[in-house]
Amino acid sequence: xxxxDCDGPASxxxxxxxxxxxxxxDLPLAPGQTVLAALExxxxxWPASCRNGTCRTCIGRLAAGRVRHTIPWPxxxxxxKADGCxxxxxxxxxxxxxxxGPGA
Length: 104
Known about the structure:
This protein is of the alpha+beta class. It has a single domain, classed as Ubiquitin-like (UB roll), CATH 3.10.20. The protein has helices at about 35-40, 80, and strands at about 20, 25-30, 60-65, 65-70, 85, 90-95, 95-100. The strands form two sheets. Strands 2-1-7-3-5 form a five-stranded mixed sheet. A hairpin with a 6-residue loop joins β1 and β2 (about 25-30). The termini are far apart.
């Protein structure tokens, strides 16, 4: 039996980014899936209301990683963004992210 080629080309299907929230299972994120959608699909509690980035009910804070918002103005101040705040209903992770939890 031939050994696997460990130095071969990278996979065409890289692993999806993971959403981590300490105390909860890691969640793989589908392309374009929002943080809120992933949490809800897993049955994890996260406050939400408008689901369009305006009411701020779903505001959370990242402990690690980065997200991008799917709308041009997600209703966060520059200071909030700098502090790792995001709106889960319109936030998409391209890389692994770790949540500190809901609330600013």
